[in-house]
């Protein structure tokens, strides 16, 4: 039942384990919008997304983040309050994979790139109008061509949280880590 579900725009968690942290490893260009409250630290770097819970509530928040780009998660796991690691299976119900489709590619007129969701939501549909004038007759022929192009929409991460957003000084955190002191909120 421990699953990370990749939807068309949303990545969510399905579990009954009260987690303290989640690590997600991905590849490709992925931009995220954090959906968790401010007492969760959400950071993204080096093809990893790290989520750390900084509260003692026995809650399981399932909606983690919205994404834009190519969401190809290679593995994920969560850590419970006893520091036990639990692997998450990756479920991609919205992703269209060519080998799972039930038709013959040799006779199909549909291009794979034109299908609804191939795990990337960073493309927009385009419509190009052309007008050509026949030199002999002077007749104007108008045509419309559809296509796809890379979108510039949300090409950045949104609402990621840090220790500073929790009111914790990073300089004091480094000092406390070296000396073994407890870190106080608002310190």
Please render the helix and strand layout as text.
Elements: E1 3-6, E2 10-14, E3 19-27, E4 30-34, E5 40-45, E6 48-53, E7 63-69, E8 72-80, E9 85-91, E10 123-133, E11 140-150, H1 170-179
Parallel strand pairs: 1-9
Antiparallel strand pairs: 1-2, 2-7, 3-6, 3-8, 4-7, 5-6, 8-9, 10-11
Summarize the structure.
The protein is built from 1 helix and 11 strands, in the order βββββββββββα.
CATH architectural type of the largest domain: Sandwich
| CATH fold group of the largest domain | Immunoglobulin-like
Structural class: mainly beta
Poorly predicted tracts of residues: none
Q: What is the C-level CATH assignment of the largest domain?
A: Mainly Beta
**Shape, principal axes of CA atoms:** elongated
**Count of helical segments?**
1
């Amino acid at each position: 039942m421990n699953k990370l579900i990749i939807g068309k725009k949303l990545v969510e968690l399905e579990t009954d384990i009260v987690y303290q942290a989640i690590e997600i490893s991905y590849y490709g260009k992925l931009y995220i919008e954090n959906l968790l409250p401010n007492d969760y630290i959400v950071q993204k770097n080096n093809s990893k997304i790290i989520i750390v819970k900084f509260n003692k509530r026995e809650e399981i928040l399932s909606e983690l983040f919205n994404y834009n780009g190519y969401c190809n998660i290679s593995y994920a796991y969560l850590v419970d309050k006893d520091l036990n690691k639990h692997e998450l299976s990756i479920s991609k119900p919205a992703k269209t994979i060519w080998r799972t489709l039930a038709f013959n590619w040799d006779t199909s007129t549909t291009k794979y790139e034109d299908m609804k969701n191939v795990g990337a939501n960073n493309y927009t549909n385009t419509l190009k109008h052309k007008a050509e004038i026949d030199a002999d007759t002077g007749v104007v022929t108008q045509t419309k061509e559809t296509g796809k192009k890379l979108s510039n929409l949300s090409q950045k991460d949104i609402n990621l949280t840090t220790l500073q957003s929790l009111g914790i000084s990073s300089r004091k955190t480094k000092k406390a880590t070296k000396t073994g002191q407890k870190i106080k909120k608002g310190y």
